[in-house]
Amino acid sequence: MGSESSPKIVIVDESPIRAAILEEGLREAGFTGVAHISEMHNLLARIYALDPDVILIDLENPSRDVLEQMFQVSRAVRRPIAMFVDQSDSASIQASVDAGVSAYIVDGLKKERIKPILDLCISRFNAFSKLQDELDRAKSALEDRKVIDRAKGILMKLKGLTEDEAYVLLRSTAMREKKKIGEIAQSILTASELLK
Amino acid sequence: MTRALRIGFIPLVDAAALIVAVDKGFCAAEGLDVTLVREVSWSNVRDKLNIGLFDAAHLLAPVAIASSLGLGHVKVPIVAPFNLGLNGNAITVSPALHVAIMAELSGDPFDPMATALALARVVAARRKSGAEPLTFGMTFPFSTHNYQLRFWMAAGGVDPDEDVRLVVLPPPYMVDSLANGHVDAFCVGAPWNSVAVDLGVGHILHFVSDILVRAVEKVLALRQDWSEKNPAVLAALIRAHDRAAEFIEQPQKRLEVARILSAPERIGVDPEVIQRTLDGRLKISPDGTMRESSRYLLVGRQGAARPDPAQAAWLYAQMARWGQTAVSPEALAVAMAVFRPDLYDAALGREAKPTEASEGIGAFAGPAFDANDIAGHLAAFKIGRQKA
Which of B135, B177, B203, B253 could form a disulfide linkage to B165, CB 3.0–4.6 angstroms apart? Predict the structure, then answer.
């Protein structure tokens, strides 16, 4: 299977960004044979066509159960694989499940050659979720700003305030009620909607 | 003191007791603060239970056994002190395969032997004409669905490993795959059979209760070491789920149960479809034909919740029949010990109800199951992949 040079790795992931981040990391670490499958239909056939040594799949993917079939011998699966994790590897499983990735290793690849691949996946998956969190935070900050702008507009119109005065009023109310400015702004929007 | 627990589940109707136990406050009444975590694959549920991210889980009964035996994955001893459901699966076929089977059928279309023999004739005709083998979808290698499909077709002379293709498909992909012709049939739990019929892409050929009278389907699964360290919490969980199962089985509560289960963060399908499943009154054909069964899905009634080690033995026998493991008395004992009627009885302070369980597995073909002679039992079946 040519794994003495560089093991052939397949990434099964419907998220093109995450797959790209992982692929880049693997290439930088010298794993040159990396392929990506994003289409889940006929997954086993696609995997067998690529004949990989290592298969990586994200845990949000329901098709993970399809890969479990590779442990069986049947008409659909002629070359069964073995999971590299043995009884002593619970720490590896824990770390990978926490990060949201799982690895399936075709029988025959040495365990010490898998470790760096899995470690790299875990760190890249963690980096991706951090990125996703930051993106979500930025999105919600943007949402907050839109809500605050609209609440300011309502206050300016109803109370004849300037924009700065409206903002000060929102902020002082938020401090007094120990809430976020966004929450106070949202309640103003809700109230004005009700009173329309 | 309230005890916080995380329980993983797959959005299927047989997660009903778990969901109702939380959403109707039966867990809270037992001092349990349960967070239900919806998962996308059985592998995830198994792994998260195994490594302790979940305290308990909605699990395929054969996965609990495989995990305790270390088959297919890491060995983690599991206990199953409460059955979440018996039966509940169905075999759905594409309109084209339905026509083909009905054309070859002699006898009652609800008789699994008649349909299995008809399937064998369809398979033989396809082979003769050089057509691709039929493909059947099921949910997991260690699943009731896998064993039920195999048991049915093998009784008619169809070898599930040689004459057709059996492929794992995640339940949410089943209906699309049938519509696209990627599979010709599937065996899955509710609501997916009904969804296929409603969309006009499938006919329900059999309820699993045609094939087996009583088949354990999902269990409440916990790690053995956890259950030994937390006996009081375990007993409280069993009581909460027993109350939930009782609630679900009251016909006048079905509408409310269906609404609870239909919430987007729970099962997330039309409450009417869920109610059909709970009532055992299913539309089986796109033309609107209905079929009723009193045994379609049992959640607690007729003693369904009480674990029966003979059921574990039957599942273990299927693993052996299809080459997933070799028969050994030690492994059989481990498999049977996964099912814990003693924990169930202790938590509920009840005596066993042997009258209900005496019906046994009730398979439509082969001799009556005998847990004391698995090798002898399997020898009665012609088709199989038994390891020496």
Answer: B135
C-alpha distance from residue B23 to each of A162, B6, B36, B265, B272 (Å): 48, 14, 10, 12, 19
Residues in B touching A61 (Cβ below 8 Å): 40-41
Domain range annotation of chain A: 9-134, 137-194
Instruction: Just give the CATH number of A137-194.
Output: 1.10.10.10
- Report if residue B340 sits inside a domain: yes
**Closest Cα partner for B261 from B17, B2, B1, B5?**
B17
Q: Encode chain B (388 residues) as per-residue pLDDT tens digits.
A: 689 999 999 999 999 999 999 999 999 999 999 999 999 999 999 989 988 899 999 999 999 999 999 887 778 999 999 999 999 999 999 999 999 999 999 999 999 999 999 999 999 999 999 999 999 999 999 999 999 999 999 999 999 999 999 999 988 899 999 999 999 999 999 999 999 999 999 999 999 999 999 999 999 999 999 999 999 999 999 999 999 999 999 999 999 999 999 999 999 999 999 999 999 999 999 999 999 999 999 999 999 999 999 999 999 999 999 999 999 999 999 999 999 999 999 999 876 554 444 468 899 999 999 999 999 999 999 999 887 6
In a domain, B333, yes or no: yes
Q: Which pTM was predicted?
A: 0.85
The CATH class, in words, for A9-134 is alpha beta
Contact assignment for B75 to A76 by CB distance below 8 Å: no
Distance CA B30, CA B33 (A): 9
Size of interface A-B (CB pairs under 8 A): 88
Cβ separation of B50 and A93 shorter than 8 Å?
yes
Q: Which residues of chain A does B180 touch, with a Cβ-Cβ cutoff of 8 Å?
A: 41
Tell me if chain B has a CB within 8 Å of the CB of A91.
Answer: no
Task: Quote ipTM for the complex.
Answer: 0.87
Tell me, yes or no, if B173 comes closer than 8 A to chain A by beta carbon: yes
Number of domains in chain B: 1
Contact B240, B29 (CB under 8 A): yes
- Which structural domain, as residue segments, surrounds residue B329? 3-84+216-268+325-356
Angle at B338 between CA A58 and CA B39, to 5 degrees: 25
Supply A83's token pair. 């999971």
User: Does residue B262 fall inside a structural domain?
Assistant: yes
- Partners of B74 on chain A (C-beta within 8 Å) are 83, 85-87, 89-90, 93
B76: CATH: 3.40.190.10
